[in-house]
Amino acid sequence: MSVRDRIFDGLADKFADSLYGKPRGELRLALLDELLPRTLALHGQPALDAGGGLGQMSAWLARRGHPVTLAEPSVEMLERARREHGDLPIDFLRAPLQELGQVAPGPWPLIVCHAVLEWLAEPRRALATLNRLLAPGGQLSLMVFNRDALRFSNVVKGNLEKALDDRLAGTGQRQRLTPISPLTHARVSGWFAEEGLVVEHVAGIRIFHDYLRERDPDDTTLSRLFELERRYCDVDPHWRLGRYLLYHLRKPEIPGDGT
């Protein structure tokens, strides 16, 4: 059976609760709040949030003065984002990433694409699309689900045969939220080189949290954990086991363009 892109119609509530209604979601957003101003040049430029889901990153950018276009293929996710963030300078566009070259061609000086490629059947082609949308000198904030961390997590949980057989990807069926195309740093780094994208910074998001024995840590533990995550998120070798890998990529200027 061929794998198809995962669209989250019918799963918005589960998605919101599983990924953002728990400390791991708060930690992810807190780390992004720490990292993005430090690693990206943000000066109110127009931004495209590709596969923006419930709109957390679109809202984050809009509150900092960026006019944002949030593109999302799920009707349910997009309407929920509109209800939550409709008072902000955000244009809501229903479109899959693969069609953005026709409906939102840019070129964009800033693109955010967080936790999207791992839900696509052809993530390599999606990266090429993002590169075409990006203006020369533009920045791409890309976050992908880390296949190596998924293997490590399965070992910690005792799923040794699954880890040995490399049966890590989800099937996109029913209510499960395991990505269908988890990616390794080695693989995406090769794609970046092929696309001519320059990696200016890389960090791991949730490099300790997901391996805790304690399922519901108290506030004191979470505070200490966040300090550990903040301190080591971009320190080698710790970042390599982040549940997500966050890349700041830049598209080189065209020689002689003068822009």
Q: Which runs of at least 5 residues are low in confidence (pLDDT < 50)?
A: none
Count the DSSP helices.
Answer: 10
Annotation, overall tally of beta strands: 7
Integer tally of domains:
1
Tell me the helix content.
Answer: 25-40%
CATH topology: Rossmann fold
Mean pLDDT, rounded to whole units? Answer: 91
Q: In angstroms, what is the radius of gyration?
A: 18 Å
Describe the structure.
With 259 residues, the chain is α/β, with parallel strands linked by helices. The protein has a single domain (12-145, 178-250), classed as Rossmann fold, CATH 3.40.50. Helix content is 38%, strand content 19%. It is built from ten helices and seven strands. Strands 3-2-1-4-5-7-6 form a seven-stranded mixed beta sheet, sandwiched between helices. Strand 1 (47-50), helix 3 and strand 2 (68-72) form a beta-alpha-beta unit. The longest helix is centred in the N-terminal third of the chain and has 17 residues, at 23-39. The radius of gyration is 18 Å and the shape is globular.
Quick structural gist:
This protein is an alpha/beta fold. It contains 10 helices and 7 strands.
Record keyword descriptors for this entry.
Rossmann fold; seven-stranded mixed sheet; alpha/beta; globular; 259 residues
